[in-house]
Amino acid sequence: MIYGFSLLFVLLCLVTGLPALRKLFRMRKIKRNCATTTGEVISSKSSLGWLWTSTFGGVSRPLIRYHTPDGKELILEVVSSSMYTYRRYETGASEEIIYDQDRPGRAYARSEWGAALRELWIAGGSLVVAVALWVVGRALNLPF
């Protein structure tokens, strides 16, 4: 039984950690040649509807409008690939946007960096719990 819980925590680590790592690598690429601007949240609703997606964790896809220095208006859709719904974007609020100077369409909201780091810490913690449970099971010679 303890090994089953250990495997569940490993699964939680993978489900949380892999999307967070993917997001962090993407953000690091953008950060190499970045500029910052301020954007306005123009929509904070889910494009699929909250009732239909509530079973899957209430997916939200807010839209943030921002302008580049040359006057081009772009829209950033923040896609949360996390099962943790801590971030809330209010319509009309301003958000800091970091974008690639060469390709301004590649951008992210600054708050997403902290959220990805938090999810990476959660994944690391679940991996530590999984290893601890496995070691306890082996130390007590519990059957598989």
Protein model, in words:
The protein is of the alpha+beta class. The protein has one domain. Helices cover 44% and strands 21% of the residues. The chain is built from three helices and five strands, in the order H-E-H-E-E-E-E-H. It has helices at residues 2-31, 50-53, 110-139; strands at 34-43, 63-67, 73-77, 94-100, 107-109. Strands 3-2-1-4-5 form a five-stranded antiparallel beta sheet. Strand 4 (94-100) and strand 5 (107-109) form a beta hairpin. Helix 1 (2-31) runs antiparallel to helix 3. It is elongated and about 65 Å long. The N and C termini lie close together (7 Å). The model has no long low-confidence stretch (mean pLDDT 86).
